[in-house]
Amino acid sequence: MKRQRTFQWTRLDNAAKIFPPTSTARDAKVFRFACELAEPVEPDALQKALDQTLVQFPFYRSSLKKGLFWYYLEGSDQPVKVRAEDEPPCSMLYRGDGRDPLFRVTYYRRRINLEVYHALADGTGALHFLRVLVYHYLALVHAADFPDGPPPIDYDASATQKFDDSFLKYYSRDKKAPPELNPSAYQLCGSRLPDFRLSIVEGCFSVQALLAKAHEYGTTLTVFLASALIQAIHSQMSLRDERRPVVVTVPVNLRNYFPSATARNFFSVVNVGYDFSRRSGAFEDIISEVARGLEAELTADKLARRMNRLANLEHTMLIRVIPLFLKIPVLKFSNWITEREVTVSFSNIGKVEMPAAMQKHIRLVDVFLSTKRLQACMSSFGDNFVITFTTPLVSTDVQRSFFRILTGMGLEVTVTTNLAEFEEVD
């Protein structure tokens, strides 16, 4: 019997519109969440868990189509099957033909991998999907632990709430920011890995130890680690390079500022920079400047104005009636300009929560994504804090310097990588 489609089609949300025209083999716009369990994955149970999860997230069963004026999502009957990991991490999901699913679920030993095309969802939205997937999986595999049924999970949004376009919901034409004019940032350069591969370097710390160290400097964990990353990048810069600032772009979960339970995209970005040609370069000064920059940008009013400025383009009648084939080169050029203003991306997903009775079966959760530059992603589960660097560049000097800065402060780290050779952190 043919599966009935849950929805026919829907427009892409505002943040998603940039991804289809800028997706390439070099940068597939795919991110991965991985949940490492305490025991090997059982494929049959994982498939059953995925089927259950898709009932709760029906719009994940969709494909991306190209319309006359915009891309759009269309409901799909194509079955989605879990499989053993058989491709490099964050391989392409959208290839322009509008047939393939926009996510995949794979497994490798004790790891459950969820990979998502960014036009479908952001990190928080995909994390909701992963948590529900792992919840159903553990409820099946460890049913004996829950004789009265599995414990409740704290994400119970309705199908309508999960499918909500929150950009449209909070759009206001009367409240938008002026265009931003930013200088070009310092860019990391060098030889690239062949076949569009990514180097992945992952460091695992104690959450409590990291928090204690950040508090010693009188700052937050995000500011502390972003400052360490800026200092690590500076260690690879020449005096000539210091003419350009090191700029960190930080994705912001707008659900923290505007009530929303959407499992689609609902994020913005803010940029914070440090100019080594004008400032001391001392670690404490970097912390002060990063903290000042984030505090100035992370307000509901500023985020709303920026969100409205970007959304206003798609609500302008002239823009709306321009055919997609003419919009695509403009979107590509806009993306190129934006990328020149950024040195490194730095994303903190935050603390991952699961029902207490299930936590003993999970070791950690990590996240990373495809990228054309250096990208750092962080998440924590229990006392395990994981920061994962991805880059297409051969050099891992910045990553090594970052970990050495932290170990030089007395912090302990366990480093794993997909690289054949990676120099041990002293």
Précis, in short:
This protein has 426 residues and is α+β, with helices and mostly antiparallel strands. It has helices spanning 19-22, 43-56, 123-141, 159-162, 166-169, 207-216, 221-234, 283-297, 300-315, 317-320, 324-340, 397-407, and strands spanning 9-11, 30-37, 62-66, 71-75, 83-84, 103-108, 111-117, 199-206, 246-253, 267-274, 344-351, 362-369, 374-381, 384-391, 414-417. The chain has twelve helices and 15 strands.
What descriptors fit this protein?
seven-stranded mixed β-sheet, Chloramphenicol Acetyltransferase, alpha+beta, 426 residues, disordered N terminus, five-stranded mixed β-sheet, 23% strand, 2 domains
Describe the structure.
The chain is α+β, with helices and mostly antiparallel strands and 426 residues long. The chain folds into two domains: 9-169, Chloramphenicol Acetyltransferase (2-Layer Sandwich), CATH 3.30.559.10; 194-351 and 372-417, Chloramphenicol Acetyltransferase. It has helices at 19-22, 43-56, 123-141, 159-162, 166-169, 207-216, 221-234, 283-297, 300-315, 317-320, 324-340, 397-407, and strands spanning 9-11, 30-37, 62-66, 71-75, 83-84, 103-108, 111-117, 199-206, 246-253, 267-274, 344-351, 362-369, 374-381, 384-391, 414-417. A seven-stranded mixed β-sheet has the order 10-9-11-13-14-8-15. A five-stranded mixed β-sheet has the order 5-6-7-2-12, with helices on one face. Strands 1-4-3 form a three-stranded antiparallel β-sheet, with no helix packed on it. A hairpin with a 4-residue loop joins strand 3 (62-66) and strand 4 (71-75). Helix 2 (43-56) packs across helix 3 and helix 6 packs across helix 7. It comes from Anaerofilum hominis. This is Alcohol acetyltransferase.
